[in-house]
Amino acid sequence: MADGEEQALEERLKSALWFSIGKIVDEETLKLGVNATPQFIGALTEMVWAQIENVTIDLKSFAKHAGRSTINTDDVMLLSRRNEGLEAVLRSYVDKQNAGKSNHKKR
Q: Taking the model in full, what pTM does it have?
């Protein structure tokens, strides 16, 4: 992908993220009866984007260390190991998915 195309894609992704975060912030501020400025939404979007970039780097590193070019569930679980709540939610989801697959194969 050319640099111009890559930059255009990144801008589209950031715009979609800003839109989604804006909707969530609007819903929550209505519930709480407070206001959020566009600057707040912009700053929150930048913070989330930076976190996504960091997660991406970590996931790529985990897959590469395992000798793979594709990120899989094990990489995500490894990333979540320091956040017990997140790890529990993800583990529950993965277990349900795996149970569904094994039940489907038995039919």
A: 0.77
